[in-house]
Amino acid sequence: MEGYFRDDDGGASPDINTTPLIDVLLVLLVMLIVTIPVPLHSLSTALPSDSAAVPPKQPPVRLTLDADGTLFWNGERLDNADGLDLRLAQLAAQGEPPALYLRVHDAVRYGRTMTVMASIQRHGLHDVNLLTNP
């Protein structure tokens, strides 16, 4: 083993002690990090005041198509399509109409559902949510 660290002529092999070199490089790196100015970015914002509160939204309207095709508006039975059109027209006349939740029973025919959807679309109401059974 001793011959492994020696030169061919029997002298000690030259090696460089890198510990002081690493120490100097680390000191230079720390000095560089400390001397770099930290950029301070600021952004001016205008926060809203308490008087600019958003008015509460209206509760959503729940439309339900029962198994026999009967339509309910928030639990109240609508006898015909004119009742639905009248209520949708009143809803569309409001500044910001509430959301519509439409729940359709599985036994209802597709055409009946599309008739209700077309009536909603005809009155310009776009916030319609279809509810399903989990």
What would your notes on this structure say?
Belongs to the ExbD/TolR family. Pfam families: ExbD. InterPro entries: ExbD. Involved in the TonB-dependent energy-dependent transport of various receptor-bound substrates. The chain is an alpha/beta fold and about 130 residues long. It folds into two domains: about 35 residues, no CATH class; about 80 residues, Nucleotidyltransferase, domain 5 (2-Layer Sandwich), CATH 3.30.420. The protein has three helices and five strands. It has a five-stranded mixed beta sheet. The protein is elongated, with a radius of gyration of 39 Å. It starts with 18 loop residues before the first helix and ends with a strand. About 5% of the residues are buried.
CATH topology of the largest domain: Nucleotidyltransferase, domain 5
- Separation of termini? 77 Å
Major sheet details: 5 strands, mixed
Task: Sum up the overall morphology in one term.
Answer: elongated
**Spatial strand order of the main sheet:** 3-2-1-4-5
Rg, rounded, reads 39 Å
Structural class: alpha/beta
pLDDT < 50 stretches: none
Fraction of residues in helices? 25-40%
What is the highest CATH level, the class of the largest domain? Alpha Beta
CATH architecture of the largest domain: 2-Layer Sandwich
- Mean pLDDT over all positions: 83
Counted by DSSP, the helix tally is 3
Proportion of residues in β-strands? 5-15%
Count the E strands: 5
The total number of structural domains is 2
**H/E element order:** HEEEHEHE
